[in-house]
Amino acid sequence: MHELTLAMTIVDMVVEEAERSNAGTVQEIELEVGVLSGVNADALEFALSLAMRNTVLENAFVLIVQTKGSGRCNQCDRVFAMTEIWTTCPGCNMPAGEILSGDAMRIVSLVVNDQEEIDSFALK
Amino acid sequence: MCDICGCGEPGSYKIRKAGLDDPVEGGFEHSHPHGYDQGHIHDHNHSHHHPYSDDHDHNHSHNEDIIPGEMATGKRIINLGKDILEKNNLMAERNRGFFEAKEVFCINMVSSPGSGKTTLLEKTIVKLKDKFPVYVIEGDQQSMLDADRIAKLGIPVVQINTGLGCHLDANMVNKALKSFEIKSHSLLFIENVGNLVCPALFDLGETSRVLVMSVTEGDDKPVKYSAMFRSSHLCLINKTDLLPYVDFQMDSAVNNAAVMNPSLEFFKISAKTGEGMDLWFAWIIHNVSKINP
Lengths: 124, 293
What we know:
The complex is a heterodimer. Chain A is an alpha+beta fold.
């Protein structure tokens, strides 16, 4: 359920950025969602389709890149791949003491249509 | 989000004071650009997600006609690289700064629904309200029921109704904080929405996160909801008076949780009978006095 809140946050951040950089509409948005971030990519995609309505993101292409997770074991210091937050160390069967990667949620980039360009074309 | 249609209009949560009908903050009043009677046709562009980042590098562009540095006229790439939780985390830090400056010990109480948070709060407030000022922010999707219960104890309480929202965020807490005048050297409880999933992601700026679970819930809860157990500081295992009647293995529950979070502390309590509650009261008093020596 928190995916809808996050989708709305993403839309707010993009609308703000589009205004700041004088962009017209957003053609594409790339998101990074780590597998350990606690966010379900499918749910986020659905929530975005709702949150993007009637905004500069209305027709944007959404690309969600899921990043892999890794953690360090507290006991043996081994760094291991994590697919879930409860993935245990293959050596000592303990959960990761520290998550090293895969817990991020970021807006990576946008492809925007330039408002000024659109306007100048319209003038011609 | 809007609790009528989930459309994402702002101001869809309400902050209310016990005894007052009108919200002091937020509000549901907004118009909907789309009506249900018109049907709801909106096609959104296709989207997809890539399973893992190592399948391709990150500096790609997805549409054939967009090549970085060689964009079609009027198109450009903006590299943002921004954390989606950035705003919440910034606001949480502002709240945390407020608590530090005012010397307020703030507890974010999280749990699944029905773990006995509100009863626990009532018993705790009765015990502690004469020692230092106590304030409560209640979070629920609907109703003033919890705030009304707390208000009967004669302490300031604010209710946040999140509508369809499943958690409190730092911004809601920030606004709620402004609706009462918090004295220095005090204790603030934030009773989060009963949910062990979503509130784990949202830092409110609290000093300490206390997770309440009850023996009626099953000892495998820490395994199922590990994110919440990982992010909490103290775990209260409530309703121990019911232990003879349920298949709850206390050792197994504590072990499961301790494996997820080795620094987690545990108190086994019964808010109803008072069993184990002295330790919990002592923990709070110790922490309030620590920030207020």
